[in-house]
Design brief:
single chain; mainly beta; seven-stranded mixed beta sheet; 11 strands; 0% helix
Amino acid sequence: QVQLVESGGGLVQPGGSLRLSCAASRSIFSINNMSWHRQAPGKERELVARILRSGSIYYADSVKGRFTISRDNAKNTVHLQMDSLKPEDTAVYYCSGNYITRDYWGQGTQVTVSS
């Protein structure tokens, strides 16, 4: 099993930045891929960014050039640096990881972009 704990959400003004963190209970090298998703009120959950065990990275078009996913192998943590935030980035952000064919999810962290 894998436990994932997100942190770093909060309230930020448009144009501002936040850094989300996802701490895993086991080595992230043992996890096939780690991802950040988000879900805004009344909308479906969407994939924001993913980093594979190989190091390959994927971003949703809506966040390309503004968000950066990275991993700290020593701390078994994946980060999502979010810059130039927009009100439409407001959502609950979830971390997920795929381990032995099963997806694990964190509890989510709220990000609110508002003036």
